[in-house]
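>> received
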Amino acid sequence: MGIRRLLAHVGSAENVFNAGPRELAEAGVPPEVSAQIQGAVARHGESVDEELAEIARLSVRLITFLDLEYPVLLKEIHNPPPLVYARGGLEPRDTLAVAMVGSRRATEDGCLLARRLARGLAERGFTIVSGLAVGIDGACHQGALQAEGGRTLGVLGNGLALGPPAANRMLGDEVVRRGAVLSEFPMRMPASRGSFPRRNRIISGMTLGTVVIQAPEKSGALITARYAREQGREVFAVPGRPTDVLSAGCNQLIRDGAHMATSADDVINVLEDLVARWRSRSEIAVPHPLPKPAPEPKAVPTPPPQQVRQEFSLPSPPPADSLEGRILALASEPVHVDDLARTLALSPPQLAVHLLQLEMARRIQRLPGGRYVVA
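>> returned
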C-alpha cells in the first residue's frame, strides 16, 4: 500500500490517524498494516494530539504529494517526501528556484558575495532556496530579502517547532513572511546526523540548479551538489584561491564539471533553456526571468573571484606554442574535453587545471555536454 494512494483515498495526513479499520480497508490497506496504524494511534495518541496542537499554534500546513501546492520540481526526484510541513506560503512562481548553499564558517567576503548573488537572482524573479543555517545559507536568504519582491524558502533538518538555529530565528520569521520555511520532519523532532542529508536532497530537488559558495572538502554543501547531479539538475560553484581551504570543495566541483559562477548572469545564462522547457509544460506556471536591473550607483566591493582571476591572469594572447595557446587553438570550434585530453596527451586532472585557468581568465567558455570553445 503506497502512502500516495492512502492519502488520495482519505484526503489528508490527519485523516489517516482518524480513519477506522473499514475506511483503511476500502483504501486497500492490508489488515496487518491497518492494525499497525490503529495500534500506533492507540499507543501514541497523546503524541499525535501534541503534534496537531503544535501545527495549529504555528499555523503550519501539511502539504501532501497529491496537493497542488506541493513543489512541482520536488515531485520529479527519486523518493520525494510524501508530506511536507510548511510555515508561510508556496506559490507557482517558486518553480523558478535556485538553491544556494555553503559553509557555516564562511568569511565576511564569502557572505558578501552570497548576498550579492542571491539578490541578483531574486531581482530577476528567481526564488532562493537554502537551509537557514548560519554562514552562507543565512547570507543567501538575506540577499533574497534585500531584493524588492524577492522570495526565499528555507528547508530545515529538524521539526518546524524547533525552528532554525538561534542566531537565525529572526531571519527565519522574515523568511516565513516573504516565502516559507519547510520540513519533512515532525514538529518537535530534533536534528540528527542523518536528517541533514535528507534536508539537502529537498533543497536541491525543488530547484533548477544549486550554487555552492565557500565549501571545504568535507562540507555538507557538497552533499547538496551531489544530490543535484543525481537529480539531473545544474550545479554551479564559486571559485576561490587554490590555497583557500574554504574553497577546496568549490574548486573540485568546477574540475568535476560544475559551472563556474561569479554573478547572477552566470547562473541565468545556463538555466535559460531549462526555464523555457519548464515553461512549455502547460500545467506549470513558470514566470519569465525579469530583465537585468540597472546597476546601482554605489560601487560594489570587488569579490574574491576577481582576485582569483588576477592570480590566474595569462599573457594576452598566450604564446601559440604554450599549452594554453594550443588549447585555445584546438577550441576555436567547440571541442569535447576528451578530445582535448587525447590530442594534448594530458590526464583529465592535468587538463582540468589548465581549462580552469583559462575559464577564470574568460579566455574559454564551457558548453553543455563537456565541450569547450574560445570565449
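>> Residues 296-315 have pLDDT under 50 and may be disordered.
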